[in-house]
Amino acid sequence: MKVNMKKNLCRVSGAPLAKVLDFGMQPLGNGFLGDKDINTEYFYSMKIGFSEVSMMLQLIEQPIPEKMFHDHYAFYSSTSKVMEQHFKSFAEEVLDSNYLSKSDPFVVELGCNDGIMLKNFSKKNIRHLGIEPSANVAEEANKIGVRTRSDFFSKKLADKIVSEEGKADAFLAANVMCHIPEILDVVKGIKALLKPSGVVIFEDPYLGDIINKTSYDQIYDEHVFLFSALSIQYLFGLEEMELIDVSPQKTHGGSMRYTLAHRGSYAVKDSVTQLLIKERAQGLDKIATFEEFRANVERSRSELITLIKDLKAKGKRVSGYAATSKSTTVLNYCGIGPDLIDYICDTTPIKQGKLSPGVHIPVVPHEVFKNDPTDYALLLAWNHADEIMEKEKDYVGGGGKWIVHVPTVKVL
Length: 412
Ligand code: JHZ
Known about the structure:
This protein is of the alpha/beta class. The chain has 14 helices and 19 strands. The protein has helices at residues 65-68, 81-96, 119-122, 135-143, 155-165, 183-193, 207-213, 229-237, 270-282, 287-313, 325-334, 366-371, 385-391, 393-397, and strands spanning 2-4, 18-27, 43-51, 56-59, 61-63, 106-110, 127-131, 148-149, 168-174, 194-205, 225-226, 241-249, 255-262, 318-321, 344-345, 363-364, 376-379, 401-404, 410-411. A seven-stranded mixed β-sheet has the order 8-7-6-9-10-13-12. A six-stranded mixed β-sheet has the order 16-15-14-17-18-19. It has a four-stranded antiparallel β-sheet with strand order 2-3-4-11. Ligand JHZ binds next to helix 11 and helix 13.
C-alpha cells in the first residue's frame, strides 16, 4: 500500500504537480535485507514533482510511513562523531537563546532517534519529550534518560500532549520534517502545541545545495519533501506562522536550519529576507530550474557508470564505503550491483550481514575494508568526507583511491 497523491496534486497547496524526474522502481532507502527476503522485497515508483504554488519539490508517490519507520529502523543517528558534536551545539544554541521560558521550559523533539540531541537537555534537567515512531531507536533514547514516546506526531497527539503536559517553548526536529507526508496535520499540531512565545526550529537537507551539487541521492522514499526557505514560508504561512531566522548548516552535504514562530511574535531577521531573495535568484520557485537539474542528474549517472565499468575492465576492485540511505538511490538508479562493487562496509551492526536494498551488494563490517581493501572505494557517505578521510589515511597511504560522485564524478 502506498500514500498516493490525489491526481498528482501537491500535498501542500493542492495545485497540480509538474513531473521533474522519474527514477523508475526503487526499493526502500533503509530496506537492508536478508537472503530469505529477496523474493518479497518491496519496490515503488520513485518520481518527483514540483508545484510553483507551494514551491515544494516532492515525491509523487510514497510508501506508507509504517513501511519505513518501525521496530527495526536501520538508521541510528549516533554513528558519527561530527553529528554528535553538531547536535550538542544545536542544543546549546537553543539553551542559550531567549526562546525558552525562565521557569520550567518544555522542549519537544520530533523524531528524536536514539536521543542524540535531547540528551543535551535531559542532562541539564530540562523538561523534554521525544516523539519517535521507530520503536528500536526510541528504546535507545529511553535507555540514556531521554523521555521518549514511540508514536507518529499529529494534531491529535499535540492536543493530548498539551492537555497532559502543557504547551511547549520549543519544538525541534532534525532530518525529520522532510520525511512526513501528512505535513499539513503536523504543522497544525505544532501551531497547537507552541506557547504564544514558542518557536519551532528544525533542519533538513537544503534544496539549494541539492540543486547546486546535483546531489540527487537525497531523493529517496523517506524524503517526501526537499525544502527551501520559500516552500517553508508558504507551508507555515497556512497556519499564520512565519520564518524569523534561517541558518545554513554543513551537515548532510548542506542543510538549512529554519526558525519559525507565530506571526508577529518576533522580529524577522535579515537572514530570512536575504535567503528568500537568493532563492528566487537561483530559481527555486521555477520549474525550469528542475528541468536543468534533471539533465545534470542524468549526466552524473552516465559518468559514474562509465567510470566504474572502465575500472572493472582494467581488472580493478571497487567497494562502497558506508551503506547510507542515499546510496540506495545512486546504486539502483545507476544499476551498480555486486558485479561492479564487491561489498559495502558500514559501522552499523543492524546493516552488517545484510544485502543493500534493490541491487543486493553485501554489507560488511568496517574491518573487511581494513583487512581486504579494494583498489577504489566509492564514498557513499560523501557528506561525512572530512571525518572519513581523516580516519582512513592508511587506505590512501596503501595505494587505495576514493571515487566521489558529488558535486561531480571523479577519482580523488
Ligand atoms: P548518513 C540518514 O541518511 C537517514 P543516510 C535519514 N533518513 C535522513 O534523513 C538523513 O540521514 C538526513 C555509516 N558510516 O549520515 C553509518 C560509516 O560506516 O550519510 C550509517 O550507516 N562510517 C534519517 O543514511 C551511514 O554511514 C563512518 O565513518 O544517507 C550514515 O549515513 C560514518 C561517518 C558513517 O545518512
